[in-house]
Structures are given as structure tokens and as C-alpha cells.
UniProtKB/TrEMBL annotation:
Keyword Hydrolase: yes
Species this protein is from: Hypholoma sublateritium (strain FD-334 SS-4)
Function: Catalyzes the reversible conversion of alpha-D-glucosamine 6-phosphate (GlcN-6P) into beta-D-fructose 6-phosphate (Fru-6P) and ammonium ion, a regulatory reaction step in de novo uridine diphosphate-N-acetyl-alpha-D-glucosamine (UDP-GlcNAc) biosynthesis via hexosamine pathway.
Name of the protein: Glucosamine-6-phosphate isomerase
CDD domains: GlcN6P_deaminase
Glucosamine/galactosamine-6-phosphate isomerase domain mapped to chain residues: 8-221
PROSITE patterns in alphabetical order: GLC_GALNAC_ISOMERASE
InterPro entries linked to this entry: Glc/Gal-6P_isomerase, Glucosamine6P_isomerase, Glucosamine6P_isomerase_CS, NagB/RpiA_transferase-like
EC number: 3.5.99.6
Chemical reaction(s) catalysed: alpha-D-glucosamine 6-phosphate + H2O = beta-D-fructose 6-phosphate + NH4(+)
Gene Ontology molecular functions: glucosamine-6-phosphate deaminase activity; identical protein binding
Enzyme class, first EC level, given as a word: hydrolase
Any one GO biological process: N-acetylglucosamine catabolic process
Pfam families in UniProt: Glucosamine_iso
Length: 287
């Protein structure tokens, strides 16, 4: 697992947006081979969405051949409610970009048969060949998507009862009226996230600091479901300085040094490549 630390939520968002932009452009998606991207809601990914919107407007990136799968949705909240995740995604992201709405997948928390809705979601992900990159956020209790403490690390898309802590945390979106926060949600499972070929998680703010330390400094544990990321072969967490408040100084220094060395390696590789190209050109001009 890699941990990248940036100054604040804005620079975290810029880093992740650049990262996703590079991945999608390198993948060079086409209609028959789209880039399949998993997406979260919450306040943490908003700076990433803002930066991606700017890149798409500047034509550095396109979502024409991107298919998205959102992580979760409340059960029983009307789809057009201002706090449904469906409304959130269109308000904060999809309405501002060039993605055809038919390529957006969001769980339907009002489906007549919620179990069938969850199973079909897993099936649809499979039909697209799996998720290439899953972007996630976390709750204060370390939950990824709505995989609350105690969720099976082998879980798949299903109905989940929300933890009281999550209901309290999300009341801020419902005029601080706890009774207005839905009690249940549909969510991809921990295993659904781990199945993605790459996972990137945004963690910002001091209120996420304990969760971050539990997830990366301690063992894999179902009480902090983000920790399951330790089992993933290609996982990246991008955090701001505030979110590192509970980490050991040694941990922060370690991950910062890894980034420095990685930068050096990449610079050297680029220099060698450029030198090789120049030599090739010289040989070609002599011939
Ligand atoms: N189900 C969502 C999570 O997917 C999200 O990561 C979390 C964090 O939200 P915020 O980024 O606003 O702290 O909120 C909810 O619980």
C-alpha cells in the first residue's frame, strides 16, 4: 500500500484527479473497451470532482468512454431527494462532464426487490470485466463505502444497517435532524472493492485521523474495514496533513521518503529514456 500526503483537501483532490486522468488516458478507452471507474460520495471527494471537471472542460480528459459504478445509496430516500447519492453525484459531478448518463450506475435504494438489485449490481460489474480503479472515501469509524464496523471482509453488494455513529455523522446533511437520516443503505461489499484492479482512497480532515492510523498501522480488522486494503496488491491512500494526526512520526516519514525515492527513480528513468532517444536519433541521422 502507498500513502501519499498532501497539505490540504484541495491539493489531495488535485493529486487524485491527476492520477485518475493519467490512468484513463493511458488506458485509452473506447466504446467497446470502456474504463470502469468506481466512485464515492461524501464531502472528501468533492475537490477531486472539481479538479476532474476542470480537466474535462479543458479537454485534457473525457468520460465519453468511462463507465461508473457508485459505492452506495440510501434505502428508501426518494431518488430526487437533495441528499440521495444519486442527486449528489449528478449535482457534484455527472451534470458537469461529458459522460453519457446511460454509463452511470448507481444502486437503486427504492428497488422493489433490494436483494435482487444488489445481486444484479455485482453481475453488471462482472459483465463490464470488473472495476479498473475504485475511488473510495471513508467514514470516521474507518468504514469504506457503507461497510460499517464488523462487516465481513468477504462481503459483496448488499443491504446494510447503518451504525449509529454514521447516522450521527451524516445528520449534518439532513439539517442535523438525526431522525431524518435513513437507517439502511445498499453498499458494495469490502470484497467488491478489493476485486477492483486498483483502489485509491481519499482521507482528509482530523476526524478521520484515528481511522487512518488503525487502517495502516495495525492489522487487518473487520472493525476498521479500510484496513482490508492491506490485502490489496495495488492500493493507494491520499491523505492531507490533518488526517495524519494519529500516525506515528516514523510512519509519516517513511511514506514521505518512499515518495521522494519514487520521484527520483522516475526522474532517472525519464532521463535515461530521453538520452536513449537522443542516441537513437543520432544513429539514425548517421545512417
Ligand atoms: N457512505 C459514505 C461513505 O462512502 C463516505 O466515504 C463517507 C465519508 O463522508 P465524508 O467524506 O463527507 O466524510 O460518508 C458516507 O458514510
Amino acid at each position: 500500500m502507498r500513502l501519499i500526503i498532501r497539505e490540504d483537501p484541495k491539493t489531495v483532490g488535485d493529486y487524485i484527479a491527476n492520477y485518475i486522468c493519467r490512468r484513463i488516458n493511458d488506458f485509452a478507452p473506447t466504446p467497446s473497451r470502456p474504463f470502469v471507474l468506481g466512485l464515492p460520495t461524501g464531502s472528501s471527494p468533492i475537490p477531486t470532482y472539481k479538479a476532474l471537471i476542470a480537466m474535462i472542460k479543458e479537454k485534457k480528459l473525457s468520460f465519453q468512454n468511462v463507465v461508473t459504478f457508485n459505492m452506495d445509496e440510501y434505502v428508501g430516500l426518494p431518488r430526487d431527494h437533495s441528499e440521495s447519492y444519486h442527486t449528489f453525484m449528478f449535482r457534484e459531478f455527472f451534470s458537469h462532464i461529458d459522460i453519457p448518463p446511460s454509463q452511470v450506475n448507481i444502486l437503486d435504494g427504492n428497488a422493489e426487490d433490494l436483494i435482487a438489485e444488489c445481486n444484479n449490481y455485482e453481475q453488471r460489474i462482472k459483465e463490464f470485466g470488473g472495476i479498473e480503479l475504485f475511488l473510495g472515501g471513508i467514514g470516521e469509524d474507518g468504514h469504506i463505502a457503507f461497510n460499517e464496523p464488523g462487516s465481513s471482509l468477504a462481503s459483496r453488494t448488499r443491504i446494510k444497517t447503518l451504525a449509529y455513529d454514521t447516522i450521527l455523522a451524516n445528520a449534518r446533511f439532513f439539517n442535523n435532524d438525526i431522525s431524518a437520516v435513513p437507517r439502511m443503505a445498499l453498499t458494495v461489499g469490502v470484497a467488491t472493492v478489493l476485486d477492483a484492479r486498483e483502489v485509491v482512497v481519499v482521507v482528509t480532515g482530523q476526524r478521520k485521523a484515528l481511522a487512518l492510523s488503525k487502517a495502516i498501522e495495525e492489522g487487518v480488522n473487520h472493525l476498521w474495514t479500510l484496513s482490508a486494503l492491506q490485502m490489496h496488491p495495488w492500493a493507494l491512500i491520499v491523505a492531507d496533513e490533518d488526517a495524519t494526526a494519529e500516525l506515528h512520526v516514523k510512519t509519516v516519514k517513511y511514506f514521505k521518503s518512499i515518495e521522494r525515492v519514487q520521484d527520483e527513480v522516475e526522474r532517472t528513468q525519464a532521463e535515461l529514456k530521453a538520452r536513449g532517444k537522443k542516441a537513437e536519433e543520432q544513429v539514425a541521422s548517421v545512417n
